[in-house]
Every structure is written in structure tokens, then in C-alpha cells.
Amino acid sequence: MTDEPSNGELGRLIGSLQQSLDNRFSELNSRLDKMVSLDVYTIQTTHVEQRISQLQADIQRCGTESAQLEDAFEAYQRDEAKRRDAERQARLYQLIVPVAICLISSVIAIWAVVGK
After folding, report:
1. Which of 63, 62, 86, 67 is CA-nearest to residue 78?
2. Contact present, 5 and 13 (Cβ < 8 Å)
3. Dihedral sign of CA atoms 87, 90, 96, 101 in order
């Protein structure tokens, strides 16, 4: 019987155990107070998913607009090259026609002088 604890020791051990449990439960309650409720988490997750979807749609739209802009710029460059070629050709004809007329009139004048 000497190995068995006395009633006083048992009372102190039970009190200590109860105090330890109270401390652990209060610690658990303080941790749970920091937790987010499932409803709030669900709402926040839904909002984040919607925002990500919206951003993905915006990125897709920007990519499409960028591709359209690149296509329009390429078309502009082709049209501008065609316009420049046509302008060069017109300038060439504006130069050749007067020179040709001058040469023809000179040849005719020389032929008229030589033919007399």
C-alpha cells in the first residue's frame, strides 16, 4: 500500500490534469478563432476563381487584339509598299515621256534639216 498515492496526491494530480486540459482547450479555442469559416472560405474561393477566369478572358482578348493589330499593320505595310511602287513608276513615266518627246522632236528636227 505504500506504493499507492494518497487521496491528497490524487486530488492534486486530477487538479493538475484538469488545469492542463483547460489550458489546451483555451489554446485550441484561440487557434479556432483564427480560422476562417467554411462559408467565408467558399465565398472567397469563388471570388478568386471568378477573378482568375476574368483575367484569363482579358489575356485572351488582348492576344486576339494584338494579332488583329499585327495583321492590320502588315496589311498597311503591303499597301504602303504598293503605293510607293506605283508612285515610283509614275515618276519614272513622268521623266521618260518628256525625254522621249524631246528626243523624237530632236530627231525630227535633225531629219528635217538633213533632208533639205
Report:
1. 86
2. yes
3. negative
With a CB cutoff of 8 Å and minimum separation 6, the contacts of 13 are 5
Output the pTM of the full model: 0.49
pLDDT in tens, the chain (116 residues): 567 878 888 888 899 999 999 999 888 888 877 777 888 889 999 999 999 999 999 999 999 999 999 999 999 999 999 999 999 999 988 889 888 999 999 999 999 888 87
Kindly provide the residue ranges of all beta strands, DSSP E only, lying in the chain, ordered along the sequence: none
Q: How many Å apart are CA 25 and CA 32, to the nearest integer? A: 10
Max CA separation in the chain (angstroms): 164
What nine digits make up the cell of 28?
485550441
Distance of CA 59 to the CA centre of its chain: 4
Side chain identity at residue 43, one-letter code: I
User: Which three-class secondary structure state does DSSP give residue 30?
Assistant: helix
- State how far the Cα of 50 lies from the Cα of 56, in Å rounded to an integer: 10
